[in-house]
Amino acid sequence: MSERVLVTGATGQIGKRLVAALLTEGHEVVALARGDTAALSTLPVSFVRGDVLDSAAIELAIQGCTQLYHLAGGIRGAGAVDAAALNLGAARVVVDVAVRHKKQLRSLVFTSSCAVYGDRAGAWVDEGQAPSPATAYGHAKVASEATFLRAAREHGLAARVARLAAVYGPAQRLMRMPEIRAGRAFLPGDGQNLLPLVHVDDAVAALMRIAERGENARIYNVAGRSEPELRSFYAAITQAVGGGPVRFLGGPLVGPLLQVGAELNQRVQSSLGRKPRYIPDNLRLNTASLRMRTDRLGAELEFSWSYPDPVEAILTVPLTAHP
After folding, report:
1. Are 309 and 224 spatial neighbours (Cβ–Cβ below 8 Å)?
2. Which site among 7, 117, 212, 304 is 20 to 30 Å from 250 CA-CA?
3. What percent of the chain has pLDDT over 90?
4. Alpha carbon separation from 198 to 100, 176, 282, 306 (Å, rounded)
5. Alpha carbon 31 to chain centroid distance?
6. Exposed, middle or buried: residue 99 (CB in 10 Å: 0-12, 13-18, 19+)?
7. How far apart are CA 208 and CA 18, in angstroms?
8. Residue 227: predicted pLDDT
9. More confident: 151 or 35
Protein backbone atom coordinates (compact mmCIF):
# COMPACT_ATOMS: atom_id res chain seq x y z
CA MET A 1 0.00 0.00 0.00
CA SER A 2 1.37 3.39 -0.99
CA GLU A 3 1.89 5.82 1.89
CA ARG A 4 3.14 9.36 2.34
CA VAL A 5 6.44 9.22 4.20
CA LEU A 6 8.46 12.03 5.80
CA VAL A 7 12.26 11.65 5.94
CA THR A 8 14.50 14.07 7.84
CA GLY A 9 18.15 13.97 6.84
CA ALA A 10 16.97 12.82 3.42
CA THR A 11 19.97 14.24 1.52
CA GLY A 12 22.51 12.51 3.77
CA GLN A 13 24.51 9.35 3.07
CA ILE A 14 21.85 7.01 4.43
CA GLY A 15 18.87 9.26 3.77
CA LYS A 16 19.19 9.38 0.02
CA ARG A 17 19.41 5.58 -0.16
CA LEU A 18 16.34 5.28 2.07
CA VAL A 19 14.41 7.73 -0.11
CA ALA A 20 15.23 5.71 -3.24
CA ALA A 21 14.12 2.48 -1.54
CA LEU A 22 10.85 4.02 -0.37
CA LEU A 23 10.11 5.28 -3.88
CA THR A 24 10.84 1.83 -5.28
CA GLU A 25 8.23 0.45 -2.89
CA GLY A 26 5.72 2.88 -4.35
CA HIS A 27 5.59 5.38 -1.50
CA GLU A 28 5.32 9.17 -1.79
CA VAL A 29 8.29 10.79 -0.08
CA VAL A 30 8.49 14.18 1.60
CA ALA A 31 12.03 15.32 2.38
CA LEU A 32 12.84 17.98 4.95
CA ALA A 33 15.89 19.75 3.53
CA ARG A 34 17.83 22.72 4.85
CA GLY A 35 20.22 23.25 1.97
CA ASP A 36 21.38 21.62 -1.24
CA THR A 37 18.93 19.04 -2.63
CA ALA A 38 21.07 18.02 -5.63
CA ALA A 39 21.52 14.51 -4.20
CA LEU A 40 17.81 13.87 -4.79
CA SER A 41 17.29 16.09 -7.83
CA THR A 42 16.54 13.17 -10.18
CA LEU A 43 13.96 11.59 -7.89
CA PRO A 44 10.23 12.44 -7.62
CA VAL A 45 10.46 13.82 -4.09
CA SER A 46 8.47 16.63 -2.45
CA PHE A 47 10.78 19.04 -0.62
CA VAL A 48 9.98 21.17 2.40
CA ARG A 49 12.67 23.75 3.07
CA GLY A 50 13.62 24.10 6.69
CA ASP A 51 15.87 23.10 9.54
CA VAL A 52 15.15 20.10 11.73
CA LEU A 53 15.06 22.50 14.69
CA ASP A 54 12.27 24.47 12.99
CA SER A 55 8.95 23.16 14.29
CA ALA A 56 6.97 25.12 11.68
CA ALA A 57 8.86 23.39 8.85
CA ILE A 58 8.30 19.96 10.38
CA GLU A 59 4.63 20.79 10.93
CA LEU A 60 4.30 21.61 7.24
CA ALA A 61 6.24 18.53 6.13
CA ILE A 62 4.30 16.04 8.26
CA GLN A 63 0.93 16.89 6.79
CA GLY A 64 -0.71 13.71 5.50
CA CYS A 65 2.26 11.48 6.40
CA THR A 66 1.68 8.07 7.94
CA GLN A 67 5.35 7.21 8.42
CA LEU A 68 8.30 9.26 9.65
CA TYR A 69 11.99 8.41 9.56
CA HIS A 70 14.10 10.77 11.66
CA LEU A 71 17.66 10.49 10.34
CA ALA A 72 18.84 14.09 10.78
CA GLY A 73 21.62 14.57 13.32
CA GLY A 74 25.29 13.77 13.58
CA ILE A 75 28.63 14.30 15.27
CA ARG A 76 29.39 17.90 16.09
CA GLY A 77 32.00 19.65 18.21
CA ALA A 78 31.56 22.63 20.49
CA GLY A 79 29.96 25.69 18.97
CA ALA A 80 26.65 27.44 18.41
CA VAL A 81 25.10 24.11 17.39
CA ASP A 82 26.81 21.33 19.35
CA ALA A 83 26.00 17.61 19.54
CA ALA A 84 23.23 18.17 22.08
CA ALA A 85 21.50 20.87 20.03
CA LEU A 86 21.82 18.99 16.76
CA ASN A 87 20.59 15.66 18.11
CA LEU A 88 18.61 16.13 21.33
CA GLY A 89 17.25 19.54 20.31
CA ALA A 90 15.99 18.11 17.04
CA ALA A 91 14.52 15.05 18.78
CA ARG A 92 12.46 17.25 21.08
CA VAL A 93 11.12 19.31 18.19
CA VAL A 94 10.26 16.24 16.11
CA VAL A 95 8.54 14.53 19.04
CA ASP A 96 6.54 17.64 19.89
CA VAL A 97 5.18 17.84 16.34
CA ALA A 98 4.75 14.08 15.94
CA VAL A 99 2.70 13.75 19.14
CA ARG A 100 0.24 16.29 17.77
CA HIS A 101 -0.14 14.06 14.69
CA LYS A 102 0.08 10.68 16.43
CA LYS A 103 -3.32 9.52 15.18
CA GLN A 104 -2.16 9.67 11.56
CA LEU A 105 1.35 8.28 12.17
CA ARG A 106 1.51 4.51 11.82
CA SER A 107 5.24 4.40 12.58
CA LEU A 108 8.14 6.65 13.52
CA VAL A 109 11.69 5.31 13.33
CA PHE A 110 14.46 7.21 15.10
CA THR A 111 18.00 6.38 13.99
CA SER A 112 20.32 6.26 16.97
CA SER A 113 23.89 4.97 17.05
CA CYS A 114 26.17 2.30 18.48
CA ALA A 115 27.93 5.28 20.10
CA VAL A 116 25.45 4.94 22.98
CA TYR A 117 27.36 1.83 24.11
CA GLY A 118 30.75 3.52 24.35
CA ASP A 119 33.90 1.39 24.39
CA ARG A 120 33.25 -2.17 25.61
CA ALA A 121 36.75 -3.58 25.02
CA GLY A 122 35.41 -5.92 22.34
CA ALA A 123 32.52 -7.31 24.43
CA TRP A 124 29.09 -8.17 23.03
CA VAL A 125 26.23 -5.75 23.69
CA ASP A 126 22.50 -6.13 23.22
CA GLU A 127 19.57 -3.74 23.50
CA GLY A 128 18.95 -4.59 27.14
CA GLN A 129 22.33 -3.38 28.35
CA ALA A 130 22.57 0.07 29.86
CA PRO A 131 24.19 2.69 27.62
CA SER A 132 27.65 3.90 28.56
CA PRO A 133 28.55 6.63 26.04
CA ALA A 134 32.09 8.01 25.96
CA THR A 135 31.35 10.96 23.66
CA ALA A 136 29.15 14.03 23.57
CA TYR A 137 27.52 12.53 20.48
CA GLY A 138 26.75 9.29 22.33
CA HIS A 139 25.28 11.16 25.30
CA ALA A 140 23.08 13.19 22.95
CA LYS A 141 21.84 10.02 21.25
CA VAL A 142 21.00 8.41 24.62
CA ALA A 143 18.97 11.46 25.62
CA SER A 144 17.29 11.54 22.19
CA GLU A 145 16.32 7.90 22.48
CA ALA A 146 14.75 8.59 25.86
CA THR A 147 12.73 11.42 24.34
CA PHE A 148 11.20 9.17 21.69
CA LEU A 149 10.66 6.21 24.02
CA ARG A 150 8.98 8.42 26.62
CA ALA A 151 6.61 9.79 23.99
CA ALA A 152 5.77 6.24 22.93
CA ARG A 153 5.00 5.13 26.47
CA GLU A 154 3.26 8.25 27.74
CA HIS A 155 1.54 9.59 24.63
CA GLY A 156 1.05 6.51 22.46
CA LEU A 157 3.42 7.69 19.73
CA ALA A 158 4.29 4.79 17.39
CA ALA A 159 8.04 5.36 17.88
CA ARG A 160 10.83 2.77 17.61
CA VAL A 161 14.61 3.20 17.93
CA ALA A 162 17.23 1.78 15.55
CA ARG A 163 20.78 1.75 16.91
CA LEU A 164 22.93 1.79 13.80
CA ALA A 165 26.44 0.41 13.59
CA ALA A 166 28.99 2.33 11.51
CA VAL A 167 27.60 2.39 7.97
CA TYR A 168 29.79 1.39 5.02
CA GLY A 169 29.14 0.88 1.32
CA PRO A 170 28.63 3.04 -1.78
CA ALA A 171 29.46 6.72 -1.22
CA GLN A 172 29.85 6.30 2.55
CA ARG A 173 32.55 8.50 4.10
CA LEU A 174 33.65 5.63 6.34
CA MET A 175 35.18 3.94 3.27
CA ARG A 176 37.85 6.67 2.96
CA MET A 177 38.24 5.81 -0.71
CA PRO A 178 39.96 9.01 -1.93
CA GLU A 179 42.53 8.92 0.89
CA ILE A 180 43.29 5.23 0.39
CA ARG A 181 43.69 5.62 -3.38
CA ALA A 182 46.03 8.55 -2.79
CA GLY A 183 47.97 6.71 -0.10
CA ARG A 184 47.15 9.36 2.50
CA ALA A 185 44.78 7.55 4.88
CA PHE A 186 45.47 7.90 8.61
CA LEU A 187 43.41 6.82 11.62
CA PRO A 188 43.96 6.99 15.40
CA GLY A 189 44.64 3.84 17.42
CA ASP A 190 46.27 0.54 16.51
CA GLY A 191 43.46 -0.78 14.31
CA GLN A 192 42.90 -3.85 16.50
CA ASN A 193 39.54 -2.64 17.81
CA LEU A 194 36.38 -4.45 16.71
CA LEU A 195 34.14 -2.14 14.73
CA PRO A 196 30.39 -2.82 14.43
CA LEU A 197 29.54 -2.33 10.76
CA VAL A 198 26.45 -2.49 8.57
CA HIS A 199 26.21 -2.14 4.81
CA VAL A 200 24.10 0.87 3.81
CA ASP A 201 21.66 -1.33 1.88
CA ASP A 202 21.14 -3.55 4.93
CA ALA A 203 20.77 -0.46 7.12
CA VAL A 204 18.03 0.92 4.86
CA ALA A 205 16.26 -2.44 4.64
CA ALA A 206 16.40 -2.80 8.43
CA LEU A 207 14.95 0.67 9.00
CA MET A 208 12.06 -0.18 6.68
CA ARG A 209 11.53 -3.54 8.41
CA ILE A 210 11.46 -1.81 11.82
CA ALA A 211 8.89 0.65 10.48
CA GLU A 212 6.72 -2.20 9.19
CA ARG A 213 7.06 -4.83 11.90
CA GLY A 214 8.76 -3.21 14.88
CA GLU A 215 7.09 -2.73 18.24
CA ASN A 216 6.46 0.69 19.68
CA ALA A 217 8.84 1.86 22.43
CA ARG A 218 11.35 -0.85 21.44
CA ILE A 219 15.04 -0.62 20.54
CA TYR A 220 16.69 -2.61 17.74
CA ASN A 221 20.42 -3.03 17.11
CA VAL A 222 21.22 -2.72 13.40
CA ALA A 223 24.60 -4.21 12.50
CA GLY A 224 26.14 -6.86 10.28
CA ARG A 225 26.73 -10.42 11.43
CA SER A 226 30.50 -10.08 11.70
CA GLU A 227 32.65 -7.41 13.36
CA PRO A 228 36.16 -7.35 11.87
CA GLU A 229 39.12 -5.57 13.34
CA LEU A 230 39.33 -2.07 11.94
CA ARG A 231 42.66 -2.78 10.23
CA SER A 232 41.16 -5.85 8.48
CA PHE A 233 38.25 -3.79 7.19
CA TYR A 234 40.52 -1.14 5.68
CA ALA A 235 42.98 -3.74 4.37
CA ALA A 236 40.07 -5.21 2.38
CA ILE A 237 39.26 -1.81 0.93
CA THR A 238 42.90 -1.27 -0.03
CA GLN A 239 43.01 -4.70 -1.66
CA ALA A 240 39.84 -3.91 -3.61
CA VAL A 241 40.73 -0.45 -4.89
CA GLY A 242 44.50 -0.14 -4.73
CA GLY A 243 46.42 2.74 -3.25
CA GLY A 244 48.22 2.81 0.06
CA PRO A 245 47.30 1.08 3.32
CA VAL A 246 45.67 2.99 6.15
CA ARG A 247 48.30 4.07 8.66
CA PHE A 248 47.23 3.78 12.28
CA LEU A 249 48.57 6.28 14.77
CA GLY A 250 48.65 4.70 18.21
CA GLY A 251 50.97 4.06 21.10
CA PRO A 252 51.37 5.45 24.62
CA LEU A 253 52.63 8.84 23.42
CA VAL A 254 50.78 9.38 20.14
CA GLY A 255 47.29 8.74 21.55
CA PRO A 256 47.41 11.49 24.21
CA LEU A 257 48.99 13.90 21.72
CA LEU A 258 46.14 13.32 19.26
CA GLN A 259 43.62 13.92 22.04
CA VAL A 260 45.27 17.20 23.05
CA GLY A 261 45.41 18.28 19.41
CA ALA A 262 41.73 17.48 18.89
CA GLU A 263 40.69 19.42 21.99
CA LEU A 264 42.81 22.40 20.97
CA ASN A 265 41.45 22.36 17.43
CA GLN A 266 37.90 22.23 18.75
CA ARG A 267 38.44 25.25 21.01
CA VAL A 268 40.17 27.33 18.33
CA GLN A 269 37.72 26.55 15.53
CA SER A 270 34.72 27.14 17.78
CA SER A 271 36.10 30.47 18.98
CA LEU A 272 36.37 31.56 15.34
CA GLY A 273 32.76 30.61 14.68
CA ARG A 274 33.72 27.64 12.50
CA LYS A 275 32.45 24.06 12.63
CA PRO A 276 35.34 21.90 13.91
CA ARG A 277 35.79 18.56 12.16
CA TYR A 278 38.78 17.12 14.02
CA ILE A 279 37.33 16.72 17.52
CA PRO A 280 37.75 14.40 20.55
CA ASP A 281 34.53 12.54 19.70
CA ASN A 282 36.02 11.38 16.39
CA LEU A 283 39.06 9.93 18.15
CA ARG A 284 37.01 8.04 20.74
CA LEU A 285 34.55 6.65 18.18
CA ASN A 286 37.37 5.45 15.90
CA THR A 287 39.13 3.60 18.71
CA ALA A 288 36.10 2.10 20.51
CA SER A 289 35.77 -1.69 20.38
CA LEU A 290 32.49 -3.63 20.71
CA ARG A 291 30.26 -6.20 19.05
CA MET A 292 26.51 -5.76 18.63
CA ARG A 293 24.04 -8.60 18.99
CA THR A 294 21.27 -8.43 16.41
CA ASP A 295 19.09 -11.35 17.53
CA ARG A 296 16.12 -9.07 18.08
CA LEU A 297 16.26 -7.79 14.51
CA GLY A 298 16.85 -11.23 13.03
CA ALA A 299 14.54 -13.38 15.15
CA GLU A 300 11.69 -11.04 16.05
CA LEU A 301 11.48 -9.16 12.75
CA GLU A 302 12.76 -12.02 10.56
CA PHE A 303 15.33 -9.76 8.94
CA SER A 304 17.70 -11.26 6.37
CA TRP A 305 21.08 -9.68 5.65
CA SER A 306 22.32 -9.14 2.11
CA TYR A 307 25.85 -8.38 3.34
CA PRO A 308 26.42 -10.20 6.66
CA ASP A 309 30.24 -10.06 6.44
CA PRO A 310 31.76 -6.60 5.77
CA VAL A 311 35.15 -7.87 4.56
CA GLU A 312 33.54 -10.34 2.17
CA ALA A 313 31.21 -7.62 0.90
CA ILE A 314 34.09 -5.24 0.20
CA LEU A 315 35.99 -7.91 -1.72
CA THR A 316 33.05 -9.16 -3.77
CA VAL A 317 30.92 -6.10 -4.57
CA PRO A 318 32.03 -4.52 -7.88
CA LEU A 319 34.36 -1.56 -7.42
CA THR A 320 32.00 0.65 -9.44
CA ALA A 321 29.57 0.40 -6.51
CA HIS A 322 32.08 2.20 -4.27
CA PRO A 323 32.69 5.63 -5.82
Report:
1. yes
2. 117
3. 72
4. 34, 16, 19, 10
5. 17
6. middle
7. 8
8. 92
9. 151
- HEC per residue, the chain: CCCEEEEECCCCCCHHHHHHHHHHCCCEEEEEECCCCHHHCCCCCEEEECCCCCHHHHHHHCCCCCEEEECCCCCCCCCCCCHHHHHHHHHHHHHHHHHHCCCCCCEEEEEEEHHHHCCCCCCEECCCCCCCCCCHHHHHHHHHHHHHHHHHHHHCCCEEEEEECEEECCCCHHHCHHHHHHCCCEEECCCCCECCEEEHHHHHHHHHHHHHHCCCCCEEEECCCCCCEHHHHHHHHHHHHCCCCCEEECCCCHHHHHHHHHHHHHHHHHHCCCCCCCCHHHHHHHHCCCEECCHHHHHHCCCCCCCCCHHHHHHHCCHHHCC
CB atoms within 10 A of CB 173: 10
Crossing angle between the packed helical segments 280-287 and 254-271, to the nearest 10 degrees: 140
pLDDT in tens, 27-77: 999 999 877 777 788 899 999 998 889 999 999 999 999 999 999 876 655
Q: Structural domain boundaries of the chain?
A: 4-173+196-227+290-308
Task: Give the pTM.
Answer: 0.93
* C-alpha of 153 from chain center: 24
